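Give me the fold.
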Amino acid sequence: MKRPIRDGLIEFLKQDPAPWHMPGHKRCALPETDAVDAMLNALYRLDVTEVPGTDDLHVPTEMIRASMDELKRLYHTEETHYVVGGATCGILSAVTACVRSDPTRSRILIARNCHKSVYNITQLLGLTPVYLSPGLAGASMPGVCGGVEVSALSELLEGMTEEERKSIALMVLTGPTYEGAYTDIAGVVELLHAYGIRLLVDEAHGAHLPFYDPERSALASDADLVVQSLHKTMPAMTQSALLHVKDAGLLAHVSHALDIYETSSPSYPMLLSMETAIAWADNHRDAFERYRERLAAFYRQAQNFKHLKLVREIPHSAGRDDSRIVICADGDITGRFLGDRLAADAGMIVEMTGCRHAVLISTVMDEWASFEKLLSALDALDRLLDEPPEDAHPRADEGLIEKVDALVGAASKENIFVYPPGSYVVAVGETVSPVQADEIKQYITAGKHVMGL
C-alpha cells in the first residue's frame, strides 16, 4: 500500500512553521525539560489542520482521498473511512446510516454482548431493540459468550411477523469477542439478506485479521458494514479506527453520519499513524506468519501447567482467535486474582479480567522475548496456586447482593455494566430479570466493579 498522507505531509511541512491559522502551537517547539517534552514537540511538528496543502477528512479530494482509494483497493470495499473518534464513532455512524437509509425501519437487532456504543445509539435514535443472546461458554467461564448462532437467529426471525421483520433496520454483532470467539458471519449474512436486513459487524478486536487470518474477517463474508479499532491489535495510535462500507447504497448516508459524529478537526498524526500501520501490515505480511509461529510455540509450551489452563475453544462459536490469550485456573479462582498477581509479581498488566478468567492481548509487535516472560510469569502463578491465598476466591458483598435481588422486576434507571468489556447487562428502561440479576451478582462476588448500580 502507498502512503499518500505521509507524502503529502512531507511537502506541506516544508512551508513556514508558523502560519496564521490553527493549531495554536503553530508547529513550534515548547521549552523542553525531559524526553517526554521532546517527543511532544516532535508530535507538534506533524500536527496540522485542514488548510491548503493538506486535505479535509470530511470532503477528501487530495492526500486523504488518495489514501482512502488505497484502502478501498486493499480491503475490497465500496469505501473505507479513516475514523479519528475510535470504533465508537464508527458504530454510531454506521447504525445512523442504516436507519437514515430507510426511516420506515425503527427496530435494531442486537447481540447482547455488543459494546455499549450500540446500546447508546439505540437510545439516542429512539430505536426499539430486539435482543439475541449468543450461546454462553458455561460454568467454567461464567459471563463469557460464544458467537451468534445462525440457528438461534433463524428461530428468532421466523418467530416474528413479516411486519416485524420489515421494521428491522439492521443487526449488530461483535466478532471476534474480547475472548476471541468467532461468529459464522457468512451464515448470518446469508440469513439476514434473505429477509432484507443489513449486518454491521463490530470487528474492533479484529483489525489484524485481514493480514493475520483473512478468511476470518467479516470483510471476507460480505457484511454490509464493518468497524475495526486499529489501535487494539495493530501498530496504530489509540483512538484510531476504520469504517468499511460494502453496501454501495449506504455510501452517502455513512459520509453524512460521520460528518455529524466525528470532529471537524481531525488529527493528522492519528491519520498518519493509521496509514502507516496499514501500509506496514500490507507490505510485511511475512511478519504475521512469523507471529503465528511464535503463538503456536507459546501454546505448545503453555499446555502443561498444573492449575492454569489456556482457553483454545469457546462453546457456541465458529472458532477462536488464538492471538487473544485467555487464562483460567481450576477451582473457583477469580479472574481478578489472576490479573492482580500477574501485575504484582511480574509487572504484567492484563487487558481485562472476568469472573474466572483473564484476557491478555498479543499482537504482531510481540517478539518471542515477550512470550518467554509471560511463560515464566504463568509458571510462577501456577506454583502459587498449589496453596492459593484467601483472596483468590470469590467474596460476596452481602449488602450489595441484597440490593441486586431487590432490583428484580424493576425498570432500570441506569445502564448496568462492567468495563471492560463494556456490554450492558441491563439497559435503561429494561425490567431486570432474575438471569440478569444473577449475572450481576457473579461479577460482584468475583470482585468486579459493576457500574450503574
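Residues 285-392 form a domain with the Aspartate Aminotransferase, domain 1 fold (CATH 3.90.1150.150).
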